[in-house]
Amino acid sequence: MKIEVLFPEICNLYGDLFNVKYLKECLPECQIVNTSLKDEPLFLTEKPDLIYMGTTTESGQQLIIDKLLPYKEKVVDCIDKGYNFLFTGNAMEVLFNEIIEEDKKICDGLGIFDLSAKRKARKRFNSLYVGDFNEGNLNEPIKIVGFKSLFGFAYGKTDLYPLFITERGDGMNKECMEEGIRKNNFFGTYITGPLLVLNPVFTKWFMSEIIEVQNPVLAFEEAAMDAYNDRVKEYTNPNTGIYY
């Protein structure tokens, strides 16, 4: 089993790489392949079991777009063929049509998803997040909890590819309930930090149904579940402030 981590030297804000480190704890036999900006992506020649990219800086987004632009058709092909992707934080914005700041286009994205990222300089939006993840084979939705720290939001056809449905906090923007992107086995979310550590129920589903691990066992599962249940109780409490 191989997990390709795209551009870890610039895509590890908020400790996002702990998503991969946690999977490594759960699956000690898996091989982690770190693809730097100077490397040719592994997905060009192989089909990794998971392709991961985490949060980067705004200038980092431009570097990533420049790097991936020659491979755009391959990225589209991988998504269409069901390659497994997990992008967290602002990583998915590089696949949007464009990135706009203060009503001025900063750069074109890869144009894979019909969305625009709009941000405001020096204005960060911080919040907790609570949402539901639903799938046909689930008896009931999985509660998702996490954190967001963003300079802006996504606008456009957010209803085409929803990953989560928001219960508390912001969706892709403050006017919609949809959060994230799900197309085939591409998963993208604005949630930052260790999404998989914070959400062990989702993580076990993801390992079983997407990475196709038989009877997955989570690392530190009992402790992870106890912390998760406490977090769900806290975040869903209406007396708990959602913005900070």
Could you describe the largest sheet, including whether it forms a barrel?
6 strands, mixed
Overall pLDDT confidence: 96
Number of strands: 14
Question: What form results from the Cα inertia axes?
Answer: globular
How many distinct helices? 6
Lateral arrangement of strands in the main beta sheet: 2-1-3-4-14-13
- N to C succession of SSEs: EHEEHHEEEEEEEEEEEHHH
Approximate strand percentage: 25-35%
Q: Give the N-terminus to C-terminus distance in angstroms.
A: 39 Å
Specify Rg, calculated over alpha carbons: 17 Å
Structural class: alpha/beta
> What are the low-pLDDT stretches, counting only 5+ consecutive residues below 50?
none
Helix-residue proportion:
10-25%
Describe the protein.
It contains six helices and 14 strands. The chain has helices spanning 18-26, 58-68, 72-80, 195-198, 200-209, 221-236; strands at 2-6, 31-35, 50-53, 85-88, 98-101, 104-108, 115-119, 125-133, 142-150, 152-156, 164-168, 178-179, 181-183, 186-189. The termini are far apart. The longest helix is centred in the C-terminal third of the chain and has 16 residues, at 221-236. By secondary structure, the chain is α/β, with parallel strands linked by helices. The mean pLDDT is 96. A hairpin with a 2-residue loop joins strand 5 (98-101) and strand 6 (104-108).
Write the layout of secondary structure elements.
Elements: E1 2-6, H1 18-26, E2 31-35, E3 50-53, H2 58-68, H3 72-80, E4 85-88, E5 98-101, E6 104-108, E7 115-119, E8 125-133, E9 142-150, E10 152-156, E11 164-168, E12 178-179, E13 181-183, E14 186-189, H4 195-198, H5 200-209, H6 221-236
Parallel strand pairs: 1-2, 1-3, 3-4, 4-14, 5-7
Antiparallel strand pairs: 5-6, 7-10, 8-9, 8-11, 11-12, 13-14
